[in-house]
Structure formats: structure tokens, C-alpha cells
Design brief:
Helices cover about 65% and strands about 5% of the residues. It is mainly alpha-helical. The protein has 2 domains: about 10-115, no CATH class; about 115-165. The protein is rod-shaped, with a radius of gyration of 36 Å.
């Protein structure tokens, strides 16, 4: 979770309380920058643009904007008016949705930094090809040496055969 110098956020799932400092975005801006999607955000691929990240940060700030200090939330929680509790739950849910989108975005960025399976296999293939090239050169050098030794041995054999014929 990102905690800036301007806002501190503490969220307790059990109680649904949050405490926030000064935030600059209002709910109207949030609704402008965050269109409603019918699909589940977990099933969508993580966003790849800076604008998407900024819109998620703005949505997170907008979700925190209406949050009151914890004491006031506790007082509202004990309030007999059910609409107060619904507001607290709605703001906590909005906050968690925005936090989830940010988390998915940063997970997507982290995955971009890691090589894909295809890239990993391509690197392994390139390394194997280089190793094959080096070993092929070594084999060719060894074969050349063996051919040289064979010619030397054949020359020596011919010399010995010539000497044996003389005798």
C-alpha cells in the first residue's frame, strides 16, 4: 500500500474504520475518471499506462476523502441510523476496490520486469547454440589434429616398410 506524506490510512476490515489526512480529489472527479465496468476487474489484464495508474490513485484518494477520524466513525457505528453504517461500509468498499486495482497494476508492472517463458527459452536456446558452436570448433580442431597424426603415422609406417624391404 502506498502511504504519502499528505495522507495516512489505516483500515480495519472487522470494524470498517479509516482515518485520513488531507486529500485533494472529490467524488465527482472520481466518477469522471473511473468509468463503471461490467466485467470483474480481476479478470481484466493489468493496465499498462501511466494514465491508468494515475486514475487508480485518484480513485483511491476519492474513496478515502469522505472518511472521518476513527472516533467519529466509531460514534457513527453506534448511531441508530442505518444510513450512517451503510456510508461507512460503502467508503471502505470503495477504498478496497481502488487498492485492489492499484495492487493489480503494480503486480502487472512487476511481471513486465520478469522475462516471459518465451524470452527465457530463447535465451537458453541462444546459450545452447553458442555452446554447440564452441564444441563444434573444438571437435574440428581435434579432427584436424587426428588427421595430422594419421599422416605422420602413415609416413612412419611407410619408412619402416621401406627399411624392412631393404633388409
Amino acid at each position: 500500500m502506498i502511504i504519502s506524506s499528505e495522507s495516512r490510512v489505516f483500515l480495519s476490515w472487522e470494524e470498517g474504520f479509516c482515518e485520513s489526512g488531507r486529500l485533494k480529489v472529490d467524488m465527482a472527479e472520481r466518477q469522471q475518471h473511473e468509468p463503471q465496468h461490467a466485467t470483474d476487474p480481476q479478470l481484466q489484464s493489468p493496465p499498462a499506462s501511466k494514465e491508468d495508474m494515475i486514475s487508480y490513485v485518484m480513485a483511491l484518494e476519492a474513496a478515502l476523502l469522505p472518511c472521518l477520524p476513527a472516533r467519529e466513525l466509531q460514534a457513527i457505528d453506534r448511531s441508530p441510523h442505518p444510513s450512517h453504517q451503510i456510508d461507512v461500509e460503502r467508503h471502505a468498499r470503495d477504498f478496497m476496490e481502488a487498492a485492489k486495482k492499484l495492487q493489480l497494476y503494480f503486480i502487472g508492472l512487476q511481471r513486465e520486469d520478469q522475462p516471459t517463458r518465451v524470452e527465457t527459452l530463447q535465451k537458453e536456446i541462444a546459450m545452447m547454440e553458442e555452446e554447440l558452436k564452441v564444441k563444434t570448433e573444438l571437435i574440428n580442431k581435434q579432427e584436424k589434429l587426428i588427421r595430422g597424426w594419421r599422416t605422420e603415422l602413415k609416413d612412419q609406417l611407410d619408412k619402416h616398410n621401406i627399411e624392412l624391404e631393404r633388409v
